[in-house]
């Protein structure tokens, strides 16, 4: 009788890949986790219970076939594991690095809930695809036939690139337009290298280009350009993401030294490419030698505090108005930040900023959690008389993002938007009320996860293909 390769969670403990020591990793922007060795990946994959109702899969936005590729990994069939993983996910090695697995697949693992420690799904996913790249199994798209139809995609972030990948596989001619000089969107310019090294993103960009996707970079899409794109293509996908930073309407907000998270992170990432970045070089967007205060509790705030540590800040503090349990960011990232020297000031919210021309402090009001609000979370309430000033030479606002005014930017007053400014699009297909115009990712959902953008891009591509396939029949009638 063959030996059972799975269900070893009772005999084998959960074991993450080795994490570099905090005193070492805070000195560079390299990824902090090592790669699994083959034997360790097989061992950890074998802990999967292969449960009849895989909650890991149902709680993954892409519904990745996690139990199957864990079984294939455990039995040494790695090329098949990669094929299974790639079948539902355009960028598995990226999701393996940056997805909040503790809130998605791993957080819903059955053996985790039974007290045995979740399967390390994200780390195995990363290992599978990194190995596939090393072995040469990852190849450019080679459609079985070329099609005459073309699709223009505005935005080279994960949603746009996922749509481009799926459409190109079907032989559609695809052009991606983006305002930046490199494709990838926030994968390239927003997320720091210690979470996602940039060669991982660039090799996907190169693969898409090798497969026939055309990139038109440094391209600002205004009214004239949008009209041109719409004229040139059978369909247009809006995948711009949301980049407008939320602000704080409070005293002192105009002082020098108060910066937006996206500007700070983009400058740091550009510097890592060797670009000339004046705002970094003159010290404005550089934390070196400064007391840094970051306002916010999401993953962007975690990126900012950990980047500040690596740039040589003298101190880094994070203000968040709720407590640790109610923080929206990844618990894993919070732990990594604390290990690296970040101090979290829980139940603390800004009330204003001090300084003459340049900020020198944040006026902080202490909070307590009251009754749940409409979202079900306990609402923070001010504790009167507990205000204090937190010294700061650099304040970074990581308060989330809002959509730009696309109807005005694109000269399309008929483009339907919600009261939040996001584009109104049909569920799953992404189709808008404008003929041939679709929208995916954060510009529809609001600021969300990379994995959701990938799902939207893939679903939208499928809907476009169905429409293109139906077009000749409609014309014939």
UniProtKB/TrEMBL annotation:
Boundaries of each FAD/NAD(P)-binding domain copy?
151-457
Q: Spell out the Gene3D superfamilies in the cross-references.
A: Alpha-helical ferredoxin (1.10.1060.10), FAD/NAD(P)-binding domain (3.50.50.60)
Q: Which residues form the signal peptide?
A: none
Q: What is its EC number?
A: 1.4.1.13
Keywords, alphabetical: 4Fe-4S, Iron, Iron-sulfur, Metal-binding, NADP, Oxidoreductase
Required cofactors, per record?
[4Fe-4S] cluster
- The record places domain Dihydroprymidine dehydrogenase at 25-136
State if tRNA-binding is listed as a keyword: no
Where, if anywhere, are coiled coils annotated?
Answer: none
Q: Which GO molecular function annotations are given, in alphabetical order?
A: 4 iron, 4 sulfur cluster binding; glutamate synthase (NADPH) activity; metal ion binding
Pfam families, per this entry?
Answer: Fer4_20, Pyr_redox_2
Which branch of life, at top level? Bacteria
Q: Which PANTHER family match?
A: GLUTAMATE SYNTHASE [NADPH] SMALL CHAIN (PTHR42783), GLUTAMATE SYNTHASE [NADPH] SMALL CHAIN-RELATED (PTHR42783:SF3)
Checking NCBIfam families in the record gives:
gltD_gamma_fam
List the protein's name: Glutamate synthase [NADPH] small chain
Organism, as annotated: Falsiruegeria mediterranea M17
What high-level taxonomic lineage is stated for the organism?
Bacteria, Pseudomonadati, Pseudomonadota, Alphaproteobacteria, Rhodobacterales
């Amino acid at each position: 009788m063959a030996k059972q390769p799975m269900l070893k969670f009772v005999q084998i403990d959960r074991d993450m890949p080795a994490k570099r020591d905090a005193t070492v990793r805070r000195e560079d922007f390299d990824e902090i986790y090592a790669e699994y060795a083959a034997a360790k990946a097989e061992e950890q994959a074998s802990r999967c219970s292969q449960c009849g109702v895989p909650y890991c899969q149902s709680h993954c936005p892409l519904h990745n076939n996690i139990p199957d590729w864990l079984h294939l990994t455990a039995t040494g069939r790695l090329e098949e594991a990669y094929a299974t993983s790639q079948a539902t996910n355009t960028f598995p090695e990226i999701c393996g690095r940056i997805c909040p697995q503790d809130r998605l697949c791993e957080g819903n693992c059955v053996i985790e809930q039974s007290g045995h420690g979740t399967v390390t799904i994200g780390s195995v996913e990363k290992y599978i695809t990194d190995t596939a790249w090393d072995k040469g199994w990852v190849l450019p798209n080679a459609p079985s036939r070329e099609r005459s139809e073309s699709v223009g995609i505005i935005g080279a972030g994960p949603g746009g690139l996922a749509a481009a990948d799926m459409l190109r596989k079907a032989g559609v001619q695809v052009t991606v337009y983006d305002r930046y000089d490199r494709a990838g969107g926030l994968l390239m310019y927003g997320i720091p290298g210690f979470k996602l090294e940039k060669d991982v993103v660039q090799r996907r960009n190169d693969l898409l280009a090798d497969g026939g996707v055309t990139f038109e970079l440094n391209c600002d899409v205004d009214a004239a350009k949008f009209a041109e794109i719409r004229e040139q293509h059978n369909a247009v996908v809006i995948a711009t993401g949301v980049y407008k930073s939320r602000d704080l309407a409070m005293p002192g907000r105009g002082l020098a030294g108060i910066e937006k998270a996206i500007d700070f992170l983009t400058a740091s990432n550009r510097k890592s490419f060797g670009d000339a970045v004046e705002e970094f070089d003159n010290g404005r967007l550089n934390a070196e030698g400064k007391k840094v205060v970051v306002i916010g509790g999401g993953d962007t705030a975690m990126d900012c505090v950990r980047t500040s540590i690596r740039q040589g800040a003298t101190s880094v503090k994070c203000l968040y108005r709720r407590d640790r349990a109610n923080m929206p960011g990844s618990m894993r990232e919070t732990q990594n930040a604390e290990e690296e020297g970040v101090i979290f000031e829980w139940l603390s919210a800004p009330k204003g900023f001090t300084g003459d021309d340049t900020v020198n402090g944040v006026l902080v009001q202490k909070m307590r959690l009251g009754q749940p609000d409409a979202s079900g979370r306990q609402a923070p309430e001010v504790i009167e008389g507990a205000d204090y000033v937190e010294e700061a030479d650099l304040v970074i606002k990581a308060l989330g993002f809002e959509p730009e005014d696309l109807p005005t930017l694109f000269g399309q007053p008929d483009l339907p938007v919600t009261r939040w400014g996001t584009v109104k699009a049909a569920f799953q297909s992404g189709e808008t009320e404008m003929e041939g115009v679709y929208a995916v990712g954060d510009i529809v959902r609001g600021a969300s996860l990379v994995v959701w953008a990938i799902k939207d891009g893939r679903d939208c591509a499928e809907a476009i293909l169905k429409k293109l396939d139906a077009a000749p029949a409609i014309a014939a009638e």
